[in-house]
DNA sequence: CATTCAGCGTTAGGCATCTTAACTAACAAA
DNA sequence: TTTGTTAGTTAAGATGCCTAACGCTGAATG
């Protein structure tokens, strides 16, 4: 085999790695620093094969030695981690109030991060958000150090649905993020819905750690679900899987269901309207937002507790619907309102009454969930790119 | 490598086939009779590799020559198909009114089939059905011919949910099918929910042929959904995915949802109750069952059309719910009532109003869908068994 | 301090599974 | 009969893994 030579005469990344070398690279990325015997045991590879794999990866700068580890007995083993040649990724959460950005190596060592607060809350994906993304990415690119290696992938979490290749990207508004922002050329771009990203993060680092099958349901200003089945994110035919905010409502004999009513009914705006309309005069001033409502409920305020409980029951009915359709076994509740553990008892009671048994947990990751999820997806793409498995 | 010898000295199936031989075997099973160049082109294998693979399979009797095929030019090629050594499968649809049974080779050549009508309709999985299955399987086993080869798998479609390994098989009632029936020992048994089986059949032979992502929704006495996402049947954590008959209902502000009400409301029994209660005196005698109702509607009977239309709208609302949750892109309607094309216009209109765009089609397979689906699943298991990939 | 032993890493050799290249075989059309 | 095309076989080689055996390096031991 002959190497393809670039103009400057430097051999371009051959990317003709053996299967074992690829597996070792992925293991190092996902499990962190490890010794050869550790990786070999996990992957079932012999010591000679490990030697060859590490040699291949070291030649490309994909891994580097970082020290020695002494077991209780015998010679100590060399410890490796992902090297500078493997490069880095940029992950961006293009949210409606903040743009969160992380730059990391493929084994998730943080190189740079920044949170930018939008001057005005945006209610849909628009050019304002696109401009903010452009600015934050430019700032990150300006920070780049030589030892970061090449930028392998840029992940962006967007609040729209995202269609796969061949889908109608116009209808989904997913490309609005690019109106004022042009990603660096030659870099793989990963676009994913923000709720799906949060679900990914909960799976790897949060309340669903290690779970292959679960649903992540976000309840805040908007309602959405990220569905993980058998370790695979479910996107549906046109990226609309989990758009439960668009569920029709009400469903009852003789009543005419309306599209999207669930979001309007369960979203925090309409909740607060009902709270204010039905707040006892002797219960002090009504809460200004859901955080205050939850705070009052936690402190024992009866009116707040009543509203939280009623809303939890409504949420439970929607969760039960999702559970009946896909039987995820585990539901993680997230979002500004949904992540509150105050909801758990009533949601659990409602779901188990209306549907099959499902465990209900509160999110553990808070506002970082989305950016951590898109980081993970960008890293997965970057690994494929570095290993020449794009095609 | 040494062959493990059986007591009679005949070499036991070594089952140490090369990857290419396994791929060739699967291709022959799913694509039917083919020549070596055809298979090689599909799998991207060279001619020497094809030679070796065919030789391996022929030695085991897994494939056999069936003739020569002449192209427009050049030497003619030998055509092969699955051979007797590959064996056969038994597929059983343990339904509430009939037990349908098919015996087939792994490339779906029908060896024997029988439909047994239960004396009395059964409303749940019970010993009566189990006895019928036992009888029908015994009859099939009695018919077995030497040239059928070994029985590799027995598939049974049951009207209960089916939990995976490690699930609570007691709670699902799936094992009731074995109360009066003991499957032949040493044969792989495949148990699957009947609606899921019908979905599999629609995917390979019916209205969803070639589709990787769709939902099959069955509307008859009971309501159920089979979900296919990315070519994988979705079973959920405890086999309850698609149990939309258990959806809670009604969902409306101030109303208390009840578990399982969707089935009671959308099932054909309650439909006919409403039809009879609301049948004009001048419209002739009311229909006795849904088949008559559909017949009258097709003939232009206004009362029948009104009821069909209203029920189609209700079905559309449930379909829209499923579409909003998983975005299958395509929904196939099946079952005694659901398969009628009369429903299509109103279901389409309702779904597209309440949810994302989804294509709606009527089932093409009728009552055979379930047994064809379990046959396919049994064949897939049989292929793995024959290739020694069980573990 | 020398010995022993466990575990790490390398070298040598082998095997399984694929490939390409080159050949023979069989057929239709010229 | 010749020619070109396709089917199938044989030979040789590339790849990617393995096991076996041996040297290296540490801690524990006498």
Automatic annotation (TrEMBL), chains A, B:
Taxonomy, superkingdom: Bacteria
Domain HTH marR-type: 17-64
Molecular function GO terms recorded: DNA-binding transcription factor activity
Membrane-spanning residues: none
PANTHER family per UniProt: BIFUNCTIONAL UDP-N-ACETYLGLUCOSAMINE 2-EPIMERASE_N-ACETYLMANNOSAMINE KINASE, ROK (REPRESSOR, ORF, KINASE) FAMILY
Family: Belongs to the ROK (NagC/XylR) family.
The protein's name: ROK family transcriptional regulator
């Amino acid at each position: 085999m002959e190497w393809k030579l670039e103009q400057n005469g430097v051999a371009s990344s051959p990317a003709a790695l053996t299967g074992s070398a690829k597996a070792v690279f992925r293991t190092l990325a996902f499990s962190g620093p490890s010794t050869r015997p550790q990786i070999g045991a996990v992957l079932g590879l012999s010591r000679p094969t490990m030697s060859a794999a590490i040699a291949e990866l070291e030649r490309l700068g994909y891994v580097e030695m970082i020290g020695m580890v002494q077991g209780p007995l015998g010679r100590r083993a060399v410890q490796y981690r992902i090297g500078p040649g493997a490069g880095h990724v940029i992950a961006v959460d293009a949210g409606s109030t903040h743009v969160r950005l992380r730059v990391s190596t493929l084994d998730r060592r943080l190189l740079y991060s920044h949170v930018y607060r939008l001057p005005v809350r945006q209610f849909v994906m628009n050019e304002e958000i696109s401009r903010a993304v452009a600015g934050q990415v430019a700032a990150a690119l300006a920070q780049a150090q030589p030892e970061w290696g090449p930028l392998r992938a840029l992940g962006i979490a967007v609040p729209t649905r995202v269609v796969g290749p061949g889908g109608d990207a116009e209808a989904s508004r997913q490309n609005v993020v690019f109106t004022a922002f042009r990603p660096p050329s030659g870099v793989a771009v990963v676009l994913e819905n923000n709720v799906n990203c949060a679900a990914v993060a909960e799976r790897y680092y949060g309340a669903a750690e290690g779970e292959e099958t679960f649903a992540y349901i976000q309840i805040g200003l908007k309602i959405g679900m990220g569905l993980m089945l058998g370790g695979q994110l479910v996107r549906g035919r046109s990226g609309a899987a989990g758009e439960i905010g668009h569920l029709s409502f009400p469903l009852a004999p003789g009543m005419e269901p309306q599209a999207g009513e669930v979001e309007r009914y369960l979203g925090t705006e309409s909740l607060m309207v009902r709270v204010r309309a039905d707040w006892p005069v002797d219960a002090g001033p009504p809460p200004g937002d859901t955080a205050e409502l939850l705070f009052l409920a936690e402190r024992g305020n009866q009116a707040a507790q009543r509203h939280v409980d009623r809303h939890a029951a409504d949420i439970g009915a929607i969760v039960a619907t999702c559970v009946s359709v896909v039987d995820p076994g585990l539901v993680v509740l997230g979002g500004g309102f949904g992540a509150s553990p105050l909801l758990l008892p009533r949601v659990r009671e409602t779901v188990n009454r209306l549907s099959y048994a499902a465990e209900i947990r509160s999110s553990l990751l808070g506002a970082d969930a989305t950016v951590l999820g898109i980081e993970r997806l960008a890293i997965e793409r970057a690994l494929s790119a570095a290993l020449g498995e794009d095609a």
